[in-house]
């Protein structure tokens, strides 16, 4: 068994739990590789409608495990320092890219501290819910480095450029209620309600067709950087053309008029 647990807390929901509670779920090189493998497998698992990412114990993720040392098995021996670091960062950078590329929405349930790489994971999710105990810690400054895992790209798009500049340049932490107020997270909830709220959000997503959700997610993130309104509309039009030809879209309309929950078949 690895350090990331995978289970199914509700039909259609795949939960990935960072499971090194004694180390506050800090990420070893092995865990980075494990997470990438899980995301790749989930992408092609049609039984998974929503991905839920959380942490075991009293923290979400304390960032990179700086005490683990050693080299991962996916880096060749004998590389120079710069080449070694580039190989590491190329691999780690796949994580936010794969989270965004999944056809399934990713909901992050942040319990306790989300520091450094853990902070970046929360930013990469499609939606993030925070427990009131959550704390977002810019640990990159503590390590004397710049930001990584797409942090400097994602944060301004959530909270705006000036707020992102203040958070990144000062390195100050953000508590859950402020995170909700500035748009860093969708909402904060009582700790005891965190998983229930995340599962309720997943259930609301799954009331819509799988192809509609996949196309909506991809259109939203691609259009966040669309070069023009025309390009954004063209993307939306293509998504509509594709989804309208499916049986699941017809089932969604039928269920709406019959006031019942739709039954999707992937057709």
From TrEMBL:
Signal peptide boundaries: none
Origin superkingdom: Bacteria
SUPFAM superfamilies to which the protein is assigned, alphabetical: ClpP/crotonase
GO MF assignments: catalytic activity
Pfam families, per the entry: ECH_1 (PF00378)
InterPro entries given in the database record: ClpP/crotonase-like_dom_sf (IPR029045), Enoyl-CoA_hydra/iso (IPR001753), Enoyl-CoA_hydra_C (IPR014748)
Family listed: Belongs to the enoyl-CoA hydratase/isomerase family.
Name by which UniProt lists this protein: Enoyl-CoA hydratase/isomerase family protein
Organism (species): Rhizorhabdus wittichii
């Amino acid at each position: 068994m690895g350090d990331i647990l995978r289970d199914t807390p509700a039909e259609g929901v795949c939960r990935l739990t960072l499971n090194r509670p004694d180390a506050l779920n800090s990420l070893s090189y092995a865990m980075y590789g494990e997470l990438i493998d899980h995301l790749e497998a989930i992408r092609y698992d049609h039984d998974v409608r929503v991905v839920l990412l959380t942490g075991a114990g009293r923290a979400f993720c304390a960032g990179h495990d700086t005490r683990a040392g050693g080299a991962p098995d996916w880096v060749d021996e004998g590389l120079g320092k710069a080449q070694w670091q580039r190989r590491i960062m190329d691999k780690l950078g796949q994580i936010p890219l794969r989270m965004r590329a999944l056809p399934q929405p990713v909901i992050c349930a942040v319990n306790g501290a989300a520091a450094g790489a853990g902070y970046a994971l929360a930013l990469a999710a499609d939606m993030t819910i925070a427990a009131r105990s959550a704390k977002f810690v810019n640990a990159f400054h503590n390590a004397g480095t710049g930001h990584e895992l797409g942090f400097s790209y994602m944060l301004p798009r959530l909270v705006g450029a000036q707020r992102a500049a203040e958070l990144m340049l000062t390195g100050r932490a953000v508590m859950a209620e402020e995170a909700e107020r500035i748009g860093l997270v969708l909402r904060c909830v009582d700790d005891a309600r965190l998983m229930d709220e995340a599962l309720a959000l997943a259930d609301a997503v799954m009331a819509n067709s799988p192809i509609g959700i996949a196309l909506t997610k991809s259109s939203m993130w691609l259009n966040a950087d669309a070069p023009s309104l025309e390009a954004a509309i063209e993307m939306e039009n293509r998504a509509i053309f594709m989804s309208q030809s499916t049986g699941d879209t017809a089932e969604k309309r039928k269920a709406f008029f019959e006031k019942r929950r739709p039954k999707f078949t992937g057709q």
